[in-house]
TrEMBL record:
The keyword Membrane does not apply. It is an enzyme of class 4 (lyase). The active site is at H14 (proton acceptor). It holds the Pfam family DmpG_comm. It catalyses: (S)-4-hydroxy-2-oxopentanoate = acetaldehyde + pyruvate; (S)-4-hydroxy-2-oxohexanoate = propanal + pyruvate. Substrate binds at R10, D11, S164, H193, Y284. PANTHER family: 2-ISOPROPYLMALATE SYNTHASE 1, CHLOROPLASTIC-RELATED (PTHR10277:SF9), HOMOCITRATE SYNTHASE-RELATED (PTHR10277). The record marks R10 as: Transition state stabilizer. GO terms for molecular function: 2-isopropylmalate synthase activity; 4-hydroxy-2-oxovalerate aldolase activity; manganese ion binding. It comes from Conexibacter woesei (strain DSM 14684 / CCUG 47730 / CIP 108061 / JCM 11494 / NBRC 100937 / ID131577). Coiled coil: none annotated. Its EC number is 4.1.3.39. This is 4-hydroxy-2-oxovalerate aldolase. Belongs to the 4-hydroxy-2-oxovalerate aldolase family.
Length: 344
């Protein structure tokens, strides 16, 4: 049995500049709940506590959004994402008080050790504790399994491989799932979170399921950072057709995607050259809008900025480097005249 987690109201926040209102959240969450989705993730795109100049100001507080979602669901669990260092444990505690019962604690794929306190607290306080290893394409499957074991040792009952950059293809996704499946205790489940920058979002999630992942993320209409996530309603149909039960009712899921989410989207969730460059260069999907803004400011190509970020191996939390890379590219293309000191 596959458990489906919807991320439209969290990863989708990147795509709408963190603007969803409690009313919009309630509409989408009610539709997802009717369709039988297991968990609905709600917060700023960068998790609880993410609203800031660095990551983008949200229109409403995480707490108001979580409360709105929790007030309309009958069956689905509400999930809160926390990136230690962006949000603190107190934000997770507040999320739990307001109705979140799933804690997804996210770290860069080599930094699982910073999640010990948060995963431990969630597991000890009745939440389902999930570890979320971001930018998982950047390290080899065996190294990823070592990090996953750390999260398991802190109390995570599920560890996710997170293809933040949408840089994986079905083979590399499946290799990582197999490495975690082999390295973790049999009781610990493996999850997969896809991005569609290389056009492989649903395919990667299917490959992950075939390799033993039992938790899969997606979002309605694919609403998410970069080219978006695995499109949830498409994934549900494709899983059913490939023999994986999800417990989700497909038509109500299609309906909330088309009748509610489609009209909330600010930009088409397509693989244009900038989104494709994210996957090709292996860059964090949530950098898309930041890179477009920085490129416009410095008069350079967004694609060039993303390729430079990939070359520098910049990871989440280093958003200021996007501006640095754009400024550097602008300076390289308009070098100061010989003999100039570069300052007035
Ligand atoms: C900034 C948090 C990030 O969006 C989490 C996530 O969904 C990912 O890494 O793909
Ligand atoms: Mn994501």
């Amino acid at each position: 049995m596959i458990r489906l987690v919807d991320s439209s109201l969290r990863d989708g926040m990147h795509s709408v500049r963190h603007s969803f209102s409690p009313e919009q959240v309630a509409l989408v969450a009610a539709g997802l709940d009717r369709a039988g989705v297991d968990a609905i993730e709600v917060s700023h795109g960068d998790g609880v506590g993410g609203s800031s100049i660095q990551y983008g100001k949200a229109a409403f507080s995480d707490e108001a959004l979580i409360e709105a979602a929790a007030s309309v669901v009958q069956r689905a669990q509400i999930a809160a994402l926390l990136l230690p260092g962006i949000g603190t444990l107190t934000r997770l505690q507040a999320a739990q008080r307001l109705g979140a019962s799933v804690a997804r604690v996210a770290t860069h794929c080599t930094e699982a050790d910073i999640a010990e306190q948060h995963i431990g607290w969630a597991a000890e306080h009745g939440m389902r504790a999930i570890g979320f290893l971001m930018m998982s394409h950047m390290i080899e499957p065996a190294e990823l399994a070592v990090q996953a074991r750390l999260m398991e040792s802190y109390g995570a009952s599920v560890v996710y491989i997170v293809d933040s950059a949408g840089a994986m293809v079905p083979r590399t996704a499946a290799e990582r799932v197999r490495a975690l499946r082999d390295g973790l205790d049999g009781a610990t489940e493996v999850g997969f979170h896809a991005h569609n920058n290389l056009g492989c979002g649903v395919g990667n999630a299917l490959a992950a399921a075939d390799a033993g992942a039992t938790w899969l993320d997606g979002s309605l209409r694919g609403l998410g950072a970069g080219a978006g996530n695995a499109q949830l309603e498409v994934l549900a149909a494709a899983l059913e057709r490939s023999g994986h039960a999800t417990g989700v009712e497909l038509f109500p899921l299609m309906d909330v995607a088309e009748d509610v989410v489609a009209s909330l989207m600010e930009r088409p969730q397509i693989i244009d050259r900038t989104a494709l460059s994210l996957g090709y260069a292996g860059v964090y999907s949530s950098f898309l809008l930041h890179a477009e803004r920085a490129a416009a400011k410095f008069g350079v190509e967004p694609r060039a900025v993303l390729m430079e970020l990939g070359r520098r191996r910049i990871v989440g939390g280093q958003e200021d480097m996007i501006i640095d890379a754009a400024a550097q590219l602008a300076a390289d293309s308009h070098p100061a005249p010989t003999g100039s000191s570069g300052s007035a």
